[in-house]
Prior knowledge:
- With 325 residues, this protein is an alpha/beta fold.
- The protein is 31% helix and 22% strand.
- It has ten helices and 15 strands.
- The longest helix has 15 residues, at 116-130.
- It is globular and about 65 Å long.
Amino acid sequence: xxxxxxxDGEAGTTGLQIRERLAGRSDLEVLSIDPARRKDADARAELxxxxxxxxxxxxxxxxxxxxxxxxxxxxxxxxxxxxHRIAPGWxxxxxxxxxxxxxxxxGSTRVANPGCYPTGFIGLVRPLVAAGLVPxxxxxxxxxxxxxxxxxxxxxxxxEGVAPAGTNDAFRVYGLNLxxxxxxxxxxxxxxxxxxxxxxxxxxxxxxxxxxVPLQLWALPGKPxxxxxxxxxxxxxxxxxxxxxxxxxxxxxxxKTRAGAGGYVAAMDPEALNGSNRMxxxxxxxxxxxxxxxxxxxxxxxxxxxxxxxxxxxxxLGLEEGAGL
Length: 325
């Protein structure tokens, strides 16, 4: 008999992609609410308690409310909002976080899906902190660009609309108050003592993401080389299915200058992993080995949202981890 799943917020960007990933699976049955009753607390509560598993694709306050409506101890919840990512009693839904995280997810009835930016940042930094190459109190900066789908329906409508109702912006920086809602989980789950400086941005492409952490290697206590960082990342993710560390030759090839008709062109495409649950990590270093750029490439709606949610759902229900992915 298939497990039943209710996606609360299935009409949103992440909810739609989760439903698409679950479509056609014989091991799961997706329960849907009557569109006319989406804001009916009684109707939602009935489905929230009837399903074997619930995926919350809601704003933070609505996600907290939905959790409060679940009275059954058997219902497993994956929350895609920011509400519970550092909350006690909630497992963090980055299965590759460390060797014990899959078991923590599988054994929990409450799992907080990671944010898209934190997935890239934590994926790059936590292994280096764990290896002692980057001290937990080291000041870090993270620069990132995401497709506009990460901003939800409002930003999608703005970028896909026609000016003046829409926008002609090619690129936009935001989070200028240095208080982005992803910062707490970045600090906690990367194993840091201090919050990193986070510089997010959005580009004129719907989907995809690049997250980058620059490092002054000469300022680190052990003065590691770029090769040391690369070896540590490869060892940490050895055998992983959805997180890959680019080889040394691949990183070297990307570092070569490419001249286009209009000048120099970028060597990495933020849309390269769209539609997948994969994340690929890169290490670039300068000639004398004193500086490095750590880069994570992922789909902000894949490994950064819906893909991770399905991966967590599979683990919680005892199903094959990659089903639907």
